[in-house]
Specification:
- This protein has 457 residues and is of the alpha/beta class.
- The protein folds into two domains: 282 residues, 3-Layer(aba) Sandwich (Aminopeptidase); 123 residues, Alpha-Beta Plaits.
- It contains 13 helices and 21 strands.
- The strands form seven sheets. It has a six-stranded mixed β-sheet with strand order 1-2-6-3-7-19, with helices on both faces. The chain has a four-stranded antiparallel β-sheet with strand order 13-15-11-16, covered by helices on one side. The chain has a three-stranded antiparallel β-sheet with strand order 4-5-21.
- The two termini are 17 Å apart.
- Bound molecules: ligand BES and manganese (II) ion (2 copies).
- Ligand BES binds next to strand 16.
Protein backbone atom coordinates (compact mmCIF):
# COMPACT_ATOMS: atom_id res chain seq x y z
CA UNK A 1 0.00 0.00 0.00
CA UNK A 2 1.63 3.17 -1.24
CA UNK A 3 -0.40 5.40 1.11
CA UNK A 4 0.92 3.52 4.14
CA UNK A 5 4.48 3.72 2.89
CA UNK A 6 4.22 7.45 2.20
CA UNK A 7 2.61 8.23 5.56
CA UNK A 8 5.27 6.26 7.40
CA UNK A 9 8.21 7.79 5.59
CA UNK A 10 6.80 11.30 6.14
CA UNK A 11 6.46 10.64 9.88
CA UNK A 12 9.53 8.51 10.46
CA UNK A 13 11.42 10.84 12.78
CA UNK A 14 8.38 11.58 14.90
CA UNK A 15 7.64 7.84 15.26
CA UNK A 16 11.10 7.40 16.71
CA UNK A 17 11.06 10.52 18.91
CA UNK A 18 7.78 9.46 20.47
CA UNK A 19 9.18 6.05 21.38
CA UNK A 20 12.26 7.65 22.95
CA UNK A 21 9.98 9.87 25.02
CA UNK A 22 8.10 6.81 26.29
CA UNK A 23 11.39 5.07 27.12
CA UNK A 24 12.32 7.99 29.40
CA UNK A 25 9.54 7.00 31.81
CA UNK A 26 10.89 4.41 34.30
CA UNK A 27 7.77 2.23 34.41
CA UNK A 28 9.28 -0.54 36.53
CA UNK A 29 6.33 -2.60 37.73
CA UNK A 30 8.21 -4.69 40.29
CA UNK A 31 9.42 -1.76 42.40
CA UNK A 32 6.80 0.28 44.29
CA UNK A 33 9.18 3.25 44.20
CA UNK A 34 8.15 3.68 40.54
CA UNK A 35 4.39 3.47 41.07
CA UNK A 36 3.93 7.10 40.03
CA UNK A 37 6.05 6.62 36.91
CA UNK A 38 4.08 3.53 35.96
CA UNK A 39 0.86 5.56 36.25
CA UNK A 40 2.42 8.39 34.21
CA UNK A 41 3.38 5.90 31.54
CA UNK A 42 -0.19 4.56 31.40
CA UNK A 43 -1.47 8.11 30.88
CA UNK A 44 1.07 8.67 28.11
CA UNK A 45 0.01 5.45 26.34
CA UNK A 46 -3.64 6.52 26.58
CA UNK A 47 -2.83 9.93 25.05
CA UNK A 48 -0.90 8.25 22.25
CA UNK A 49 -3.85 5.96 21.50
CA UNK A 50 -6.17 8.95 21.20
CA UNK A 51 -3.73 10.86 19.01
CA UNK A 52 -3.25 7.80 16.81
CA UNK A 53 -6.96 7.93 16.09
CA UNK A 54 -8.74 5.68 18.59
CA UNK A 55 -12.41 6.61 19.10
CA UNK A 56 -11.99 6.08 22.82
CA UNK A 57 -9.12 5.32 25.16
CA UNK A 58 -9.05 4.97 28.91
CA UNK A 59 -6.78 4.14 31.81
CA UNK A 60 -8.45 1.34 33.74
CA UNK A 61 -7.38 1.08 37.39
CA UNK A 62 -6.76 -2.37 38.85
CA UNK A 63 -5.70 -3.59 42.28
CA UNK A 64 -2.16 -3.11 40.94
CA UNK A 65 -0.92 -1.06 37.99
CA UNK A 66 -3.47 0.25 35.46
CA UNK A 67 -4.44 -1.29 32.13
CA UNK A 68 -4.75 1.01 29.12
CA UNK A 69 -7.56 0.24 26.71
CA UNK A 70 -8.50 1.93 23.46
CA UNK A 71 -10.42 1.04 20.33
CA UNK A 72 -11.13 2.09 16.79
CA UNK A 73 -14.32 0.50 15.48
CA UNK A 74 -14.82 1.28 11.80
CA UNK A 75 -17.61 -1.16 11.05
CA UNK A 76 -19.05 -3.71 13.48
CA UNK A 77 -19.52 -6.17 10.63
CA UNK A 78 -15.76 -6.29 10.03
CA UNK A 79 -13.48 -8.64 11.95
CA UNK A 80 -11.78 -7.31 15.09
CA UNK A 81 -8.16 -7.65 16.14
CA UNK A 82 -7.31 -7.29 19.83
CA UNK A 83 -3.74 -6.02 20.19
CA UNK A 84 -2.02 -6.84 23.48
CA UNK A 85 1.26 -5.48 24.81
CA UNK A 86 2.82 -4.18 28.00
CA UNK A 87 4.17 -0.79 28.97
CA UNK A 88 5.84 -1.95 32.18
CA UNK A 89 9.51 -2.89 32.19
CA UNK A 90 11.93 -4.99 34.21
CA UNK A 91 14.10 -3.34 36.87
CA UNK A 92 17.26 -1.85 35.34
CA UNK A 93 19.84 -3.18 37.76
CA UNK A 94 22.72 -3.90 37.80
CA UNK A 95 23.03 -0.22 36.90
CA UNK A 96 26.83 -0.12 36.76
CA UNK A 97 26.86 -2.43 33.74
CA UNK A 98 24.88 -0.03 31.53
CA UNK A 99 26.90 2.04 29.03
CA UNK A 100 24.28 4.78 29.21
CA UNK A 101 21.35 5.46 31.52
CA UNK A 102 18.61 2.83 31.25
CA UNK A 103 15.99 5.57 31.07
CA UNK A 104 18.03 7.98 28.94
CA UNK A 105 17.62 6.32 25.54
CA UNK A 106 20.46 6.76 23.07
CA UNK A 107 20.77 5.60 19.48
CA UNK A 108 24.10 4.00 18.65
CA UNK A 109 24.93 2.03 15.50
CA UNK A 110 21.28 1.99 14.51
CA UNK A 111 20.12 0.58 17.83
CA UNK A 112 18.00 2.16 20.55
CA UNK A 113 19.53 1.48 23.97
CA UNK A 114 17.12 1.71 26.93
CA UNK A 115 15.22 -0.50 29.35
CA UNK A 116 12.04 -1.49 27.54
CA UNK A 117 13.41 -0.61 24.08
CA UNK A 118 12.49 -4.11 22.91
CA UNK A 119 10.52 -5.58 25.84
CA UNK A 120 7.98 -4.30 25.30
CA UNK A 121 7.64 -0.54 24.77
CA UNK A 122 9.36 -0.56 21.39
CA UNK A 123 7.34 -3.49 20.13
CA UNK A 124 4.08 -2.33 21.71
CA UNK A 125 4.47 1.18 20.26
CA UNK A 126 4.85 -0.22 16.73
CA UNK A 127 1.18 -1.19 17.00
CA UNK A 128 0.11 2.32 17.95
CA UNK A 129 2.01 3.72 14.96
CA UNK A 130 0.62 1.02 12.67
CA UNK A 131 -2.88 1.92 13.85
CA UNK A 132 -2.15 5.61 13.26
CA UNK A 133 -0.97 4.78 9.74
CA UNK A 134 -4.21 2.98 8.93
CA UNK A 135 -6.49 5.57 10.55
CA UNK A 136 -4.79 8.63 9.05
CA UNK A 137 -4.79 7.13 5.56
CA UNK A 138 -8.44 6.14 5.90
CA UNK A 139 -7.67 2.51 5.25
CA UNK A 140 -8.62 0.51 8.31
CA UNK A 141 -9.22 -3.03 7.01
CA UNK A 142 -10.79 -4.16 10.31
CA UNK A 143 -11.64 -2.99 13.81
CA UNK A 144 -8.79 -2.70 16.27
CA UNK A 145 -8.94 -2.94 20.05
CA UNK A 146 -5.78 -2.25 22.02
CA UNK A 147 -5.07 -3.45 25.54
CA UNK A 148 -1.71 -2.50 27.04
CA UNK A 149 -1.03 -3.68 30.57
CA UNK A 150 1.39 -2.53 33.25
CA UNK A 151 2.00 -5.79 35.10
CA UNK A 152 3.32 -8.28 32.55
CA UNK A 153 6.76 -8.37 34.14
CA UNK A 154 5.23 -9.20 37.52
CA UNK A 155 3.01 -12.02 36.30
CA UNK A 156 -0.09 -10.12 34.99
CA UNK A 157 -1.68 -10.65 38.39
CA UNK A 158 -4.71 -8.41 37.77
CA UNK A 159 -5.25 -8.92 34.06
CA UNK A 160 -7.10 -12.22 34.48
CA UNK A 161 -9.87 -10.46 36.42
CA UNK A 162 -9.96 -7.65 33.84
CA UNK A 163 -10.57 -10.24 31.12
CA UNK A 164 -13.33 -11.86 33.19
CA UNK A 165 -14.98 -8.48 33.89
CA UNK A 166 -14.74 -7.18 30.32
CA UNK A 167 -15.59 -10.13 28.11
CA UNK A 168 -18.00 -8.10 25.99
CA UNK A 169 -15.70 -5.13 25.55
CA UNK A 170 -12.81 -7.36 24.55
CA UNK A 171 -14.80 -9.39 22.04
CA UNK A 172 -12.57 -9.97 19.03
CA UNK A 173 -11.55 -12.54 16.44
CA UNK A 174 -7.86 -12.83 17.25
CA UNK A 175 -5.23 -11.50 19.65
CA UNK A 176 -2.13 -9.96 18.07
CA UNK A 177 1.02 -9.62 20.18
CA UNK A 178 4.51 -8.29 19.47
CA UNK A 179 6.48 -9.32 22.54
CA UNK A 180 8.64 -12.13 21.20
CA UNK A 181 11.67 -12.43 18.97
CA UNK A 182 12.55 -13.50 15.44
CA UNK A 183 15.73 -15.13 14.17
CA UNK A 184 17.10 -12.14 12.25
CA UNK A 185 16.15 -9.58 9.62
CA UNK A 186 17.59 -11.96 7.02
CA UNK A 187 15.66 -14.90 8.46
CA UNK A 188 12.30 -13.56 9.62
CA UNK A 189 10.40 -16.02 11.77
CA UNK A 190 7.20 -16.28 13.76
CA UNK A 191 7.02 -17.94 17.15
CA UNK A 192 4.39 -20.64 17.16
CA UNK A 193 4.46 -21.32 20.85
CA UNK A 194 5.62 -20.13 24.25
CA UNK A 195 6.67 -22.03 27.31
CA UNK A 196 4.85 -21.92 30.62
CA UNK A 197 6.41 -21.09 33.96
CA UNK A 198 6.46 -22.30 37.55
CA UNK A 199 8.49 -20.04 39.82
CA UNK A 200 9.54 -21.19 43.29
CA UNK A 201 11.40 -19.79 46.25
CA UNK A 202 13.14 -22.03 48.77
CA UNK A 203 14.44 -21.29 52.24
CA UNK A 204 16.79 -23.72 53.97
CA UNK A 205 17.30 -23.29 57.71
CA UNK A 206 20.08 -24.90 59.71
CA UNK A 207 20.94 -23.77 63.25
CA UNK A 208 18.61 -21.32 64.99
CA UNK A 209 21.10 -18.42 64.54
CA UNK A 210 24.21 -17.48 62.61
CA UNK A 211 27.23 -19.22 64.17
CA UNK A 212 30.96 -18.55 64.40
CA UNK A 213 32.32 -20.76 61.62
CA UNK A 214 35.39 -21.70 63.65
CA UNK A 215 33.57 -22.54 66.85
CA UNK A 216 30.72 -24.51 65.22
CA UNK A 217 31.80 -25.12 61.62
CA UNK A 218 32.37 -28.76 60.76
CA UNK A 219 29.99 -29.93 63.45
CA UNK A 220 26.70 -28.38 62.31
CA UNK A 221 25.24 -28.62 58.80
CA UNK A 222 25.75 -25.41 56.83
CA UNK A 223 22.45 -24.58 55.08
CA UNK A 224 24.29 -22.90 52.20
CA UNK A 225 26.25 -26.09 51.50
CA UNK A 226 23.13 -28.23 51.87
CA UNK A 227 21.17 -25.95 49.54
CA UNK A 228 23.92 -26.18 46.91
CA UNK A 229 23.89 -29.98 47.13
CA UNK A 230 20.13 -30.11 46.89
CA UNK A 231 20.13 -27.80 43.88
CA UNK A 232 22.93 -29.76 42.22
CA UNK A 233 20.86 -32.93 42.56
CA UNK A 234 17.96 -31.43 40.59
CA UNK A 235 19.72 -32.43 37.32
CA UNK A 236 21.17 -35.89 36.73
CA UNK A 237 24.30 -36.79 34.75
CA UNK A 238 22.35 -36.39 31.49
CA UNK A 239 20.98 -33.03 32.63
CA UNK A 240 17.52 -34.46 32.94
CA UNK A 241 15.49 -32.90 35.74
CA UNK A 242 15.16 -35.26 38.69
CA UNK A 243 11.97 -33.83 40.25
CA UNK A 244 9.74 -36.89 40.56
CA UNK A 245 6.93 -36.86 37.99
CA UNK A 246 8.30 -33.78 36.22
CA UNK A 247 8.20 -35.26 32.71
CA UNK A 248 5.00 -37.27 33.11
CA UNK A 249 2.83 -34.95 31.03
CA UNK A 250 5.46 -33.64 28.62
CA UNK A 251 4.28 -33.96 25.06
CA UNK A 252 6.92 -35.65 22.93
CA UNK A 253 7.11 -34.26 19.41
CA UNK A 254 7.10 -36.40 16.30
CA UNK A 255 10.32 -36.82 14.33
CA UNK A 256 8.87 -34.61 11.61
CA UNK A 257 8.09 -31.82 14.08
CA UNK A 258 11.55 -32.05 15.59
CA UNK A 259 13.08 -31.97 12.16
CA UNK A 260 11.14 -28.80 11.32
CA UNK A 261 12.41 -27.11 14.48
CA UNK A 262 15.99 -28.05 13.66
CA UNK A 263 15.63 -26.77 10.12
CA UNK A 264 15.75 -23.19 11.37
CA UNK A 265 19.11 -21.56 10.71
CA UNK A 266 21.29 -21.90 13.80
CA UNK A 267 25.06 -21.86 14.23
CA UNK A 268 26.21 -23.39 17.52
CA UNK A 269 29.77 -22.03 17.21
CA UNK A 270 28.43 -18.50 16.72
CA UNK A 271 25.97 -18.97 19.59
CA UNK A 272 28.74 -20.01 21.97
CA UNK A 273 31.08 -17.25 20.83
CA UNK A 274 28.40 -14.60 21.23
CA UNK A 275 27.67 -15.73 24.80
CA UNK A 276 31.31 -16.21 25.73
CA UNK A 277 30.91 -19.88 26.68
CA UNK A 278 33.30 -22.63 25.62
CA UNK A 279 30.71 -25.36 25.70
CA UNK A 280 26.99 -25.56 25.40
CA UNK A 281 24.98 -27.42 28.01
CA UNK A 282 21.64 -29.13 28.30
CA UNK A 283 19.45 -32.16 28.29
CA UNK A 284 21.14 -35.06 26.54
CA UNK A 285 19.53 -36.14 23.30
CA UNK A 286 18.22 -32.70 22.32
CA UNK A 287 19.63 -29.85 20.24
CA UNK A 288 19.93 -26.27 21.46
CA UNK A 289 16.80 -25.23 19.57
CA UNK A 290 14.89 -28.10 21.13
CA UNK A 291 16.28 -27.38 24.60
CA UNK A 292 15.04 -23.79 24.45
CA UNK A 293 11.82 -24.40 22.55
CA UNK A 294 10.13 -27.71 23.20
CA UNK A 295 11.78 -29.08 26.34
CA UNK A 296 11.08 -28.06 29.93
CA UNK A 297 13.95 -26.67 32.01
CA UNK A 298 14.83 -25.83 35.61
CA UNK A 299 17.04 -22.85 36.43
CA UNK A 300 18.35 -21.14 39.54
CA UNK A 301 17.62 -17.42 39.14
CA UNK A 302 19.25 -16.32 42.36
CA UNK A 303 20.91 -17.87 45.39
CA UNK A 304 21.98 -16.17 48.59
CA UNK A 305 22.66 -16.52 52.28
CA UNK A 306 25.35 -15.71 54.82
CA UNK A 307 27.82 -12.88 54.47
CA UNK A 308 28.08 -11.17 51.10
CA UNK A 309 29.35 -7.74 52.21
CA UNK A 310 32.82 -6.28 51.81
CA UNK A 311 35.79 -8.23 53.12
CA UNK A 312 35.47 -11.46 55.05
CA UNK A 313 33.28 -12.41 57.95
CA UNK A 314 33.60 -15.89 59.38
CA UNK A 315 30.07 -17.07 59.79
CA UNK A 316 28.04 -20.23 59.38
CA UNK A 317 24.70 -18.85 58.19
CA UNK A 318 21.46 -19.90 59.78
CA UNK A 319 19.61 -19.66 56.46
CA UNK A 320 20.18 -19.96 52.73
CA UNK A 321 17.76 -19.17 49.90
CA UNK A 322 17.23 -19.65 46.20
CA UNK A 323 14.74 -18.65 43.52
CA UNK A 324 14.17 -21.46 41.09
CA UNK A 325 12.09 -21.31 37.92
CA UNK A 326 10.91 -24.07 35.63
CA UNK A 327 9.91 -23.46 32.00
CA UNK A 328 7.06 -25.71 31.00
CA UNK A 329 5.89 -27.22 27.74
CA UNK A 330 2.57 -28.75 26.68
CA UNK A 331 0.89 -30.49 28.56
CA UNK A 332 2.56 -29.63 31.86
CA UNK A 333 0.41 -27.63 34.28
CA UNK A 334 2.03 -24.87 36.31
CA UNK A 335 0.31 -25.62 39.65
CA UNK A 336 0.95 -29.35 39.33
CA UNK A 337 4.64 -28.79 38.62
CA UNK A 338 4.89 -26.40 41.60
CA UNK A 339 3.41 -29.13 43.82
CA UNK A 340 5.76 -31.78 42.44
CA UNK A 341 8.72 -29.50 43.04
CA UNK A 342 7.64 -28.74 46.61
CA UNK A 343 7.18 -32.43 47.46
CA UNK A 344 10.48 -33.35 45.84
CA UNK A 345 12.46 -30.59 47.50
CA UNK A 346 11.03 -31.43 50.92
CA UNK A 347 11.75 -35.13 50.36
CA UNK A 348 15.43 -34.65 49.48
CA UNK A 349 16.17 -32.38 52.46
CA UNK A 350 18.43 -34.04 55.03
CA UNK A 351 17.33 -34.05 58.69
CA UNK A 352 20.03 -31.49 59.51
CA UNK A 353 17.96 -28.68 57.93
CA UNK A 354 14.37 -27.54 57.55
CA UNK A 355 13.07 -26.34 54.21
CA UNK A 356 10.27 -24.00 53.27
CA UNK A 357 9.10 -23.98 49.65
CA UNK A 358 6.74 -21.33 48.28
CA UNK A 359 5.39 -20.80 44.79
CA UNK A 360 5.42 -17.42 43.03
CA UNK A 361 3.46 -16.63 39.86
CA UNK A 362 3.16 -19.19 37.12
CA UNK A 363 1.71 -19.57 33.67
CA UNK A 364 0.70 -22.18 31.16
CA UNK A 365 2.49 -23.01 27.91
CA UNK A 366 0.80 -22.18 24.59
CA UNK A 367 1.04 -23.42 21.03
CA UNK A 368 -0.32 -21.27 18.20
CA UNK A 369 -1.27 -23.42 15.21
CA UNK A 370 0.55 -22.51 11.99
CA UNK A 371 -2.30 -23.68 9.79
CA UNK A 372 -4.78 -21.10 11.12
CA UNK A 373 -6.00 -18.18 8.98
CA UNK A 374 -4.47 -15.77 11.50
CA UNK A 375 -1.02 -17.35 11.37
CA UNK A 376 -1.23 -17.43 7.58
CA UNK A 377 -2.12 -13.73 7.55
CA UNK A 378 0.96 -13.00 9.66
CA UNK A 379 3.13 -15.12 7.37
CA UNK A 380 1.79 -13.28 4.33
CA UNK A 381 2.46 -9.91 5.99
CA UNK A 382 6.07 -10.98 6.59
CA UNK A 383 6.37 -12.16 2.98
CA UNK A 384 5.08 -8.79 1.82
CA UNK A 385 7.53 -6.65 3.77
CA UNK A 386 10.55 -8.97 4.06
CA UNK A 387 10.17 -10.72 0.72
CA UNK A 388 10.78 -14.04 2.49
CA UNK A 389 8.80 -16.90 3.92
CA UNK A 390 8.87 -16.70 7.73
CA UNK A 391 10.24 -19.69 9.61
CA UNK A 392 8.00 -21.02 12.39
CA UNK A 393 9.94 -21.31 15.67
CA UNK A 394 9.11 -22.21 19.27
CA UNK A 395 9.90 -19.45 21.74
CA UNK A 396 11.60 -20.13 25.03
CA UNK A 397 10.07 -17.25 26.98
CA UNK A 398 6.68 -17.01 28.64
CA UNK A 399 3.71 -14.66 28.43
CA UNK A 400 1.32 -16.23 30.92
CA UNK A 401 -1.69 -14.15 29.88
CA UNK A 402 -1.78 -15.72 26.40
CA UNK A 403 -3.19 -18.97 27.79
CA UNK A 404 -5.89 -16.94 29.57
CA UNK A 405 -6.95 -15.22 26.34
CA UNK A 406 -7.91 -18.62 25.10
CA UNK A 407 -9.45 -19.84 28.34
CA UNK A 408 -11.38 -16.68 29.25
CA UNK A 409 -12.11 -15.04 25.91
CA UNK A 410 -11.88 -18.09 23.64
CA UNK A 411 -9.30 -16.27 21.53
CA UNK A 412 -6.23 -17.60 19.75
CA UNK A 413 -3.09 -15.48 19.55
CA UNK A 414 -0.59 -14.62 16.84
CA UNK A 415 2.91 -13.84 18.11
CA UNK A 416 4.25 -11.36 15.58
CA UNK A 417 7.49 -10.42 17.33
CA UNK A 418 10.30 -8.31 15.90
CA UNK A 419 12.87 -8.52 18.70
CA UNK A 420 16.14 -10.41 18.43
CA UNK A 421 17.39 -12.95 20.96
CA UNK A 422 20.44 -10.77 21.63
CA UNK A 423 18.44 -7.62 22.37
CA UNK A 424 19.44 -8.03 26.04
CA UNK A 425 15.90 -7.99 27.35
CA UNK A 426 15.91 -8.12 31.19
CA UNK A 427 19.70 -7.43 31.01
CA UNK A 428 21.87 -4.33 31.06
CA UNK A 429 22.08 -2.48 27.71
CA UNK A 430 18.74 -3.65 26.40
CA UNK A 431 18.42 -2.55 22.78
CA UNK A 432 16.09 -2.59 19.82
CA UNK A 433 17.22 -2.05 16.26
CA UNK A 434 15.68 1.04 14.70
CA UNK A 435 15.30 -1.04 11.52
CA UNK A 436 13.24 -3.65 13.36
CA UNK A 437 11.06 -0.93 14.86
CA UNK A 438 10.27 0.51 11.43
CA UNK A 439 9.87 -2.92 9.87
CA UNK A 440 7.33 -3.81 12.52
CA UNK A 441 5.33 -0.63 11.86
CA UNK A 442 5.44 -1.44 8.15
CA UNK A 443 4.41 -5.08 8.57
CA UNK A 444 1.58 -4.82 11.12
CA UNK A 445 -0.99 -3.06 8.86
CA UNK A 446 -0.60 -5.91 6.38
CA UNK A 447 -1.50 -8.39 9.09
CA UNK A 448 -4.78 -6.51 9.63
CA UNK A 449 -5.42 -6.39 5.89
CA UNK A 450 -4.74 -10.08 5.23
CA UNK A 451 -6.54 -11.18 8.38
CA UNK A 452 -9.66 -9.20 7.33
CA UNK A 453 -9.39 -10.65 3.82
CA UNK A 454 -9.42 -14.17 5.26
CA UNK A 455 -12.99 -13.41 6.37
CA UNK A 456 -13.85 -12.54 2.79
CA UNK A 457 -13.87 -8.81 3.68
N1 LIG B 1 8.44 -10.61 26.34
C1 LIG B 1 8.83 -11.52 27.37
C2 LIG B 1 8.65 -12.96 26.98
C3 LIG B 1 9.43 -13.44 25.79
C4 LIG B 1 10.69 -12.98 25.50
C5 LIG B 1 8.87 -14.36 24.96
C6 LIG B 1 11.38 -13.42 24.39
C7 LIG B 1 9.55 -14.84 23.87
C8 LIG B 1 10.82 -14.34 23.58
C9 LIG B 1 8.02 -11.20 28.62
O1 LIG B 1 8.00 -9.83 28.89
C10 LIG B 1 8.70 -11.85 29.79
O2 LIG B 1 9.76 -11.44 30.13
N2 LIG B 1 8.06 -12.85 30.42
C11 LIG B 1 8.59 -13.45 31.59
C12 LIG B 1 7.52 -14.08 32.41
C13 LIG B 1 6.77 -13.13 33.31
C14 LIG B 1 5.76 -13.88 34.12
C15 LIG B 1 7.68 -12.33 34.20
C16 LIG B 1 9.59 -14.53 31.24
O3 LIG B 1 9.52 -15.13 30.16
O4 LIG B 1 10.46 -14.76 32.07
MN1 LIG C 1 7.58 -8.71 27.23
MN1 LIG D 1 9.95 -9.29 29.86
Amino acid sequence: MQAWKDYQSQNKERFLDELLELLRIPSVSADSKYKGDVARCADAVKDHLLRAGCDTAEVCPTAGHPIVYGEKIVDPSLPTVLVYGHYDVQPADPLNLWHSGPFEPVIKDGKIYARGACDDKGQMYMHIKALETMVKTNSMPCNVKVMIEGEEEVGSVNLGKFLEDNKQKLKADIVLVSDTSMISMEHPSIESGLRGLAYMEVEVTGPNRDLHSGVYGGAVANPATILCKMIASLHDENNHITVAGFYDKVQELSDAERKAINNAPFDLAEYKAELGVKEDWGEKGYTTLERTGIRPTLEVNGIWGGYIGEGAKTVLPSKAYAKISMRLVPNQVSDEISDLFKKHFEAIAPDSVQVKVTAHHGGEPVVTPTDSAAYQAAAKAIRTTFGKEPIPTRGGGSIPIIALFERTLGLKTVLLGFGLDNDNIHSPNEKYDVANYYKGIETIPYFHKYFAESFGK
